[in-house]
C-alpha cells in the first residue's frame, strides 16, 4: 500500500468536487464578492421602517433573503476551496474575505430580527392577510411569536448583549486549559517506544490490543485531569452559571428549557430519552458481559472499553465497492432516491481522496443553489464505507429540501439532520448483514453496530443526564465542587455500565475531559436522532412504500415546520418512548445475532 500523500494538483479532476459549478473561476468569485459588497448597503434603507406597511416589510425581507442566498454561495465556494488545501495561501485569503462579508452582512442586517420582534403581533397578522406574498413568512413569524415573551426591554437587551463576551469566559478558559496548557505524560507503546499522549492519540491508545498500553494511557490521562480538578470544576461551574443566568434573565423556567426552546423541542423529549434509556440499561450490561467474555479477562475495566473485541479481520473496501454498496443499501428508499444518489456520484459531489493540506475528517456541506458537496479523506475500510453512507444521507436531505423549499426554509436543524444521515447507515448495516457470507466479516459488522450504538445512544444519553444533573443542582442553590462533580459522574458510570464492569475511580474525572458539557444541552440530539433513524429504518424495511413516502416527505420539509412535528409526520413521535424502545429492540436483536455467531 502506498503511503505517499499526493499534492492537490495531482488528484484526478473527476475525483474532486465540482466547485466550478458554483463559480466558473476564482475571478468570477472575486467579481461576485465585489458586487455583493456594493449591494449589501441596500438593506440599510429599511431600517426603522419594517412596520410602515406590508409592502415595505415584504421588500425588506426579500432583500435580506436575496443577499443571504448569494452570500451562502460566496462563502461555500471560499471555505471549500480552503478546505481542499489549507496550505494554499490564496484560498486562505479568499476564506478570510468571505468571513469578512459574512460579518459585514450580519452587522447590516442585525436590526431586522429585533425590529420584527418589537412589532405589534396584530399588525404583523394584518400585514400577512393584506399581502399574499408575505404568507410565505408565516412559519418564521410563528417562530418569532414563541420567542417574543422572552425578549426584554431595549435597555435590558443591550446589557445582555454587552455581558455576552464576559459570560463566555469560562468556556474560553476551559478551551485554553484543555487544548493548550494541559500536557499529558509519555507512556510506552506496544513496541516499547516512549510516546507522549495527546488528545488525538488517547483514543487510539485506548483501542490498543496491549492491555498494559491502554491501562497506562488511561491512568496517565486521568491523573493529569485530577491534578487540575479544581480549575476544571471552576470553569464548568462558571459555564453552568452563565447558562442559568441567560435563562433566568429571559424568564425561562430552567437553563434546559431555554436551550431547547431555540429549536422548539419540548423538555419532555429530553426526559423521555433519559428514562427510556435507563429502563434499558440491562441491555448495555449484557453488552459489557459479552465484551468481558470476548476479551477473556477476569475483570473488565474502564480501559477495556475501546479495544476491538473482534480481532484481525481483513476487511478492505475500495471506494468503487463502497459506492456500489451504498447504492444497493438505499434501494428500499425507492427508485427516485437511488437515481439522485447515483447521479451525485457522477456529478462530482464528492471530493474523495486525501491530499497534502486537505482538511481532515468528513462532512457534507454546500449551500442553497449549489450541489450538496461531500468531503472525504478516503481509506479502504469499513469506517469510511459507513461515513460515506452517512454523508450521502445529509447530502440527499439537502438535495430534497433545496429542490422543494424556497430559500427561506431551505435548511434544517441538527435535531432532524442526524436522522437523515443515520438512517442511511442503518440501511447499510441491514444490507451488509443480509449479504455478507463470511462469519468473521459478519461479526465485524455486528460489533461495529453495537459499538456505534453504545457510543451514540448510551454514552450521549449519559452525558445528557449529567448535564441535566449539574444544571439542576445549581438551579436548586447547590454548588459544583470538584469532589461533587467527580462523585456524580462516577456514580452515573456505575449505573450505566452495570455489575460486570469494574468502574475504576479514574473515570470519575472524565467530566473534565468532555468539551460537550460546554455546548448548552446539545448532545442529547445525537441519541434522539439515532433512535428516530433506527425506528424509521425499521418501518421502511417492514412497511415498505407508505413508510418510504413519509420519509421522503420528511426530507423535503426543510425548516418549514417544527422538528417534532416533522418527525411525527414521518412516523416517529419523539415525545413518547416508542422510538427509543424500537432502537433498543434493534440493539437487542444485534446482541442476539452476535452471541449466536460467537457460540457457533
Ligand atoms: Zn452527521
UniProtKB/TrEMBL annotation:
- What is the protein named? Oligopeptidase F
Q: Which domain of life is it from?
A: Bacteria
- This protein's species is Alkalicoccobacillus murimartini
Q: Which SUPFAM superfamilies match?
A: Metalloproteases ('zincins'), catalytic domain
Keyword list, A-Z: Hydrolase, Metal-binding, Metalloprotease, Protease, Zinc
- What cofactor does this one take? Zn(2+)
Q: Which GO terms describe its molecular function?
A: hydrolase activity
Residues annotated as domain Oligopeptidase F N-terminal: 115-184
Keyword field contains Protease? yes
Peptidase M3A/M3B catalytic domain: residues covered:
205-585
EC number(s) on file: 3.4.24.-
UniProt remark on cofactor binding: Binds 1 zinc ion.
What family name appears in the similarity comment?
Answer: Belongs to the peptidase M3B family.
What is the documented function of this protein?
A: Has oligopeptidase activity and degrades a variety of small bioactive peptides.
Under InterPro entries, the record lists:
OligopepF_N_dom (IPR013647), OligoPept_F_C (IPR042088), Pept_M3A_M3B (IPR045090), Pept_M3A_M3B_dom (IPR001567), Peptidase_M3B (IPR004438)
The UniProt entry, under Gene3D superfamilies, shows: Oligoendopeptidase f, C-terminal domain (1.10.1370.20), Oligopeptidase f, N-terminal domain (1.20.140.70), putative peptidase helix hairpin domain like (1.10.287.830)
